[in-house]
Amino acid sequence: MAHVSVTIAGRAYRMACDEGQEEHLLGLGRQLDAKIDALRSSFGEIGDMRLAVMAGIMVADELSEMQRRAATLQQDLDELRQTRDNALQREQQTQMRVTQALTDAASRVEKLIDSLSKTGV
Fold this sequence. Notes:
Keywords: Cell cycle, Cell division, Coiled coil, Cytoplasm, Septation. One of its GO terms (cellular component) is cell division site. This protein is mostly helical. It has one domain (2-119). It has two helices and two strands; from the N terminus they run ββαα. A two-stranded antiparallel ribbon has the order 1-2. Strand 1 (2-8) and strand 2 form a beta hairpin. Helix 1 crosses helix 2 (48-119).
């Protein structure tokens, strides 16, 4: 298990993470710290806990919006896949009908040739 020191609102927090996730965790810490700094700039010194809660709610709101967008995109993707599958099925049916029509036409031509050859034309 790896450890990193994440600085948020001027305080360092030692945190454990999986090996290879150190930079990711540090980046998340920087994002949260930036949100707290932005809130501090907007509202002044209203208390570290309050700023942290507000930043957490902002992050949760962003996550909720991304989840909503992901669900909408997944629904759109599912609909597109269904449309594609329907189109492929229609294409396959059309190809089968065309093949059958060509086979029928070839059969009629062969019968006509047989008929003409028997009559001597």
